[in-house]
User: Fold these one by one.
Assistant:
Number 1:
Amino acid sequence: QAIYRKDYVAPGYWVDTVEMGFDLDLDHTHVATRLTMRRNYDSAEKDLVLFGASLKLLQLRMNGVNLKKSAYTIDGEIMRIPNAPDQVVLEIETRIQPVKNTSLSGLYASNGNFITQCEAEGFRKITWFPDRPDVMAKYTVMLRADKKKFPVLLANGNLIEEGDLGDGRHFAKWEDPFKKPSYLFALVAGKLVCQEEKYRLQSGRKVLLQVWVEDGNLDKTQHAMDSLKNSIRWDEDRFGLELDLDRFMIVATSDFNMGAMENKGLNIFNTKYVLANPRIATDVDYAGIESVVGHEYFHNWTGNRVTCRDWFQLSLKEGLTVFRDQEFSADLVGTVTGRAVKRIEDVRVLRQVQFSEDAGPMAHPVRPDSFVEINNFYTVTIYEKGAEVVRMYYTLLGHDGFRKGMDLYFARHDGQAVECDDFRAAMADSSGRDLTQFERWYSQAGTPHVKVQTAYDAAAQIYEITLTQSCAATPGQAEKLPFHIPVAMGLLDSAGHDMPLYCDGYENQAGASNLVLELTDATQTFRFSQVGSLPVPSLLRNFSAPVILDIEYSDDDLSHLLAHDSDPFNRWEAGQRLASRRLVRLTKAVQQGEKLELDQLFIEAWRSILNDESLDPSFRELMLTLPSEAMIAEEFSVVDPQAIHTARQFVRATLTQHLRADLLRTYETYLTPGKYSPDAASMAKRSLKNLSLSYLLEWVDDSTLALALTQFDEAENMTDRLAALTALTNFNGSGKQIKQAAKALKKFYKEFKQEALVIDKWFMLQATAHTTDVKTICELMEHPAFTLTNPNRARSLIFGFCNANPSRFHAADGSGYILWAELVIALNKINPQVAARLARSLDRWKKYPEHLQKKMKAALGKVAAAKNLSKDVAEVVSKALAA
Ligand code: ARG
Ligand code: ZN
């Protein structure tokens, strides 16, 4: 059932042009397609091969002649026409049922509108087609529909004609001037309104920008529009890449499986990544919109102009585009700290989610060798680890070197469907560097460990750092070869200053205090001379490679780095190491029933960060945030979620007990009265203020409770309201206090009943509260506002609970797993992609104690045995069970 990268065969036929006519009707849509095709003489495939799924085939004509049933075969999704001539005009008519399509892949209905999602293999649910990314063609699309129900008709490219059909129906004809693979096809039809603007490119050319939303949401499109304009300018400035169309559209839909989709000229977005105003969206939402709008826009070059040869190369476009959107967000803030804050946030996700994926049954290389269902491979490994791999080129080649590589990549491959190896070749050839070994980042799964040993010879003033790399086995890969790992580093003297670095083999860098060591062997020793005193090493600065650094620091070393490291990332890292060490010790103490204690050194370290006015408040917020329960879990071979939760809560409460006055002062200092603005400086203030509030409620009294209640009642923006409500939903107080807090939750619902995205937050908040158990979740599922068919809603409550409330989900009685199995099975019938995501909540079942393992295995077994299991879910649970 799996397909393999090594089995790639070029398509037997190319498609030059695609003409499509849609008669749009929610129940039955008629699709007529005309393809001009020609034989690919270089292919071993001699048949004309098409893919189709859930289609009613009405007509099939080749070169004007109806094809008899005997002239072709259909096996599952594959149609083969043997003995076709070298030049073919294929005419296909199909009928599809958009309202019945709950998978949200292909053409489907959302609130009475038509939406498409064709990546990865959704186009085959619209018509028979060589639905693979290396078949690129020019599309012309005619849309016809009822004028009242579907006043707006959109497709890729330029509108070339529109008009009335006389019978209450109208039409619009769209032409996309660029060749594209079928996964970039899109159409949208329905009742929509738009914010639009003429925008002047740096070349002087004017383009039309539009953000389309459902009626009533035009007060929420400004930020998406601003983000789009920023994206267009950034790609011109940083990469010299211009928008190639006269018109660029964004459409928001509330029914969407993922974040958004980069369809050529017609990006379709989850409303979550478009709609924002101060009343309904938080600072985090604003940042998410900026980065996703950027991401999809940047795909126009990295993904659309240069696309993937096959889906094994998915990271070619996704890793690169994530890197680009990360850089975009960092450049927009611009400051050194701003960049560091963004970097830390990205690395947090990588470590918490991707490292965990790399250590579990679904571990796969950045360029996988096989898969059963491609939709299961839109993963943090393809995206976030893929972005780290691109970032390593950037680190190795430097800013200008990387740009040269990008330029060569486009010069060579514009208009082509290529492989990850082609990108690496462009980087190597443009810089003259040997990047042969670097290929292992694409082929080998797993997170490498880099162990550090140091030696100092005071008399000779020689300091040596020995780095040893290793990588654990992953499914299908028992042995790993050494990776090419860039290790950015510095050495701190006792005053906290960076020392000049004189490292053997790095002559050119003599005197610089920042160096990128290149670790390529299993073990390598780097020798530094003129080291006048014993330094504290600062390694993997700015997280220069996606590895786990095993280094034994003393508390004093960490305090030194925390106070002085010139690299902000490693400053943050030192604090996290200090915290993590204590959280692990305390978790063990909880398990042993020992007395819990927090040392003065740690409390004072946190106090001095909190009060350090020289540090940007957003940076302080990150530093003062303890490692998440999921991060702490990674430190254990057997995970005890309840003990981890107890230990972490103990540290939060103890810190608050000691730092109450400091926290109160900070809270007051960073109040942001006045009009809401999502700029970096105001966001930073809000984040530190709200962190202070969340700590204050860990050691609550009536006065701090009042602070939270007042903030909830009086704040005029969602960031502050939600922060207050979150604190109010999670604190440990008296019965009377809890009652007051519960009122806030009710009020919030009433106030925002009409705002789906806010109601998602309302469910999420409860799903992740420590007081929420399986019974509460079941009650919430009965709430009239809950539905499993909307992915955002399902994710907020169900994924919130299964993925972000570990101490409750992993209840000792196994009730969480039973609920999980029921929901995976229910979702499987509705939407296999969403079901398969949920199925992954039990990936790491081997990491839990025996009694939990048994119950998880039973739940996995129950899902595996369910009737009509989709490929999507079957792949995930069978891999989990094979672990
Ligand atoms: N290419 C899109 C993005 O990263 C993601 C679409 C994935 N959709 C899917 N059904 N697998 O922006
Ligand atoms: Zn993408």
Number 2:
Amino acid sequence: MDRPSSESSGVGRRGFLGLGGAAALGRSLLSHDGGWGRHGFLMSMASAAETSGSGAGSSGGLPPLKITDVRVIVTCPDRNYVVVKISTTEAGLYGVGDATLNGRELAVAEDLKQHIAPLLIGRDPEQIEDTWQYLYRGPYWRGGPVQMTALAGVDLALWDIKGKRAGMPVYQLLGGRTRIGALAYTHASGRDFAEVEDGARRAIERGFKCVRAQVAIPGLEGTYGTAGAKPAEAAAGRVANMASLPQTEVFEPAPYLSTVPRLFEHLRAKLGQEVELLHDCHEKLDPIQAARLARDLEPYHLFFLEDCLRPEYKESFRLIREHSTTPLAMGELFNSLWDCVPLIKEQLIDYIRCDLGHIGGITAARKVAALAELFQVRTAWHGPGDIGPPTHAANVHVDVSIPNFGIQEMVFFPDVAREVISGGPEFEDGYMNVSDTPGLGCDVNEEVAKKYPYRRSYLPTARRKDGSVHDW
Ligand code: CS2
Ligand code: MG
């Protein structure tokens, strides 16, 4: 079946979208005599070659746009990052996204290079939702952290392009500001309570109003979240700490469950009530253990207790709720929008903390945020050192444009990382903010990136004292 080109039909994909709706579809079908039924039209919708259409584009009379190149930059300035750079037919107009998945960087990079880039060349970069749906549902094998991280990298780059083209920061495209900045938290960790207290005091002096506290558990080597006396941002998996094979940490619930409430008793006694305190369990607990911890922490009024349970056990949050009023947060290991639904609609959590970089980017996050809004759940997007500045920027663009923002985790990137990936949100007096630079506000220097080739690295794994595997 011959497919009329958009030039010959005069009603290309953009023309259809510009007119909008069924009336335009009818007109476009009627404008062809013979040989071009529904299938032909849909082929036309899908055809990369026809995305440009003819005449004026849909963006305020700007000419149509096509994707010309998708570059995947894997670099290790301080730790590994995967950057997606999407170029367009407009000279100098490109978007920068982040597709970093700690420990599986090359899997995402290959997915992007081998499977996704060919699908993007020739597409209209302004059709973000359509591209998201196409990449998510199109391949049949949907979901999973690798594919959703790749999709997030593309999504961020496309929002960046749209913002640059519109001459607006992305938060404006999302509906404009709802707040002056995003309340931020940082990490304080240490070998004992005094070290954690020192870390928290340093954070407070720096302007933070909210601090996540983790302490080493006596008798357990290298407990998660503790990095000696170093501030977390200086120790969060940098190259110097990377092992070429995973390190093994030891975890036992009994000493953990008895130590953590005493840590917060200490911190409240020394720091007072004003500072907001948080704690991350990192999916290590069974339901009844999590319920006990949440109950034991009640007197210390945490901002939230994070990721108590493994991501598979959403219904088990009911048990914690039955026993405690400590606010709960969950979600950094989710990679599907549908993971969020039961927790939100049953109000089993207070904060949804997906990783925008692993759940499909801004297009996914704004749906999660909107669902959460309807159930009085706030956002607390994952903001660790192992996702790159474009994802941190995306976090804050969403944060400052939604009504139900809660809190934003953040890190200070080292200078060497910023040499490669510049821009991103800034911290000031307890809040994160983005500038009014059009797009997401990040850029990548490909030449400098080449100076820092990929280095294989793994997150640690955990075992119980009896040698059996535990969740990290
Ligand atoms: C942590 C992360 O930030 C957090 O809440 O759980 O730092 C986590 O350890 C890493 O993202 C894992 O790579
Ligand atoms: Mg966490």
